[in-house]
Design a protein that fits this description.
Layout: H1 8-15, H2 17-47, H3 53-82, H4 89-124, H5 128-131, H6 134-157, H7 160-197, H8 214-247, H9 258-281, H10 283-300
Helix pairs in contact: 2-3, 2-9, 2-10, 3-4, 3-6, 3-9, 4-6, 4-7, 4-8, 6-7, 7-8, 8-9, 9-10
Length: about 300
Amino acid sequence: MEPFKTNIDFFWVIDQRPFFVFIFSFNVFLAITATLGNTLILIALHKVSSIHPPTKCLLRCLAMTDFCVGVILQPLFVAFLMEIASDNRRILFLTLSTFNFTFCGFSFATATVISVDRLLALFLGLRYRHTVTLRRVRCLVVCFLLASIVNGSIYSLSSRDFANSVGFAVIITSLFLAVFSHVKIFVKLRQHQAQVQHHVGHEQANGREIPLNIERYKKIVCTIGWVQLALVFCYFPMFILMILASVITTDWYKIGSVFHVSALTVVYFNSTLNPILFCWKIREVREAVKTTMKQIRCLSC
């Protein structure tokens, strides 16, 4: 996508005044809800002690990424909409694109790693806590973050086609690993359930056990499954936009078009949706959020 070759490329949205006002107001609202919602989730995760530290670290990274979307990306997008007909639009667009590639790629990678982490917890058994340590998870998170920053910088500064290709590869690889992990987890849990029904409390083959709380484990797996479905749903319009930009030369999908700003808004909506999923599916997080809100209400009174 070459940004703003002609004036037509960026007057599409502002010429449609009701839609422009709606998309502007909706993004301001989403910025507030994403910031507040993910702040509550970060506080709740700090209070919850029942989640294994490496898994909690990954959940925190996902919530922190969504928090940054509310604090950084959506205000930038709102500023881009306000300045879309001015000379500042190019700088704002390049900055926005860098952060988009950084945070979106990091979100996909983190959600996939949580699925793989849950798969390892089930298959490694007693060796899981010795293999998946907090230090190793932090190192992996830093590597993903650096790779996302580099790809975002490449998109803004040099080769957009290369960055788009890397983005496609990240999305396809993440989806494949996520589906593979959830299928393996489902099969393994079915086998474990069959063993329980036959009064066998754990696996004894090869000395591997399943030393975890199955109900809590299922909640985490179910939560990240919903998070990944939400990712696919919210990123699907942008995925289509990237494909169209690569193979078609028509104008309706270009930067500043209704389709472009709508696709970005749906992507940002994901950062408001994730805290709702965390509260809905993880009881400990929901209770911690309720406690935090009660404490804030008491302080305000």
